[in-house]
Prior knowledge:
It is found in: Cell membrane. With 218 residues, the chain is mostly helical.
Amino acid sequence: MEMTTALWSFALVVGLLTLTPGLDTALILRTSALGRRRQAWGVVLGIQTGTLLWGALTSAGVTALLTASQLGYEILRWAGAAYLVWMGVGMLRARAHPGDGAEDGAADEQDEQEERADAGGLAAGWRRGLLTNLLNPKVGVFYVAVLPQFIPAGAPHFAAGVALTAVHVVEGLVWSTVLVGFARALRGWLRRPAARRAMDRVTGLVVVGFGVKLAVSD
């Protein structure tokens, strides 16, 4: 298999994976729809940083330890499950601010308040996205199982692996741009406290569900 063929084939596989709704999609939509633009892009960059790290570690042979060490996998699995449940419960307990939901006369003031609240949110979003990705051992197992199959024989293993991972990162960034744009279009509706509470509850349930699923999975 030539490198060009490998890149296109891998792009198709991870492209389908990227388009499949999951935890990453829920986090990006929720953060962006609530008007936290900087934090939303932080989440996006954190997720893609985690993807790049998984790809690099797999290419270096480090993540093979996940499949070789049951203890290592279990530690990472339970840490990831606990983090997701903690994050999801925090969303379920969130309350809309008293000033949220102001009508047309106060809309501009609310936008300014949201921008101030979002100041510095890039770093916070990046940490959340990175931890969510790195504490999911299934991402590592996916890369261990799939990535080596697309590295051409005779190609530099690490360089080829990172190049393939970069394809996944680019596709993730493109799809995330679509998600952020879609969510931003819903901001008018999400100015209402009831809508914000519904958004937090739905996303919180999804995140807790992923955490429970990770905890009980084999």
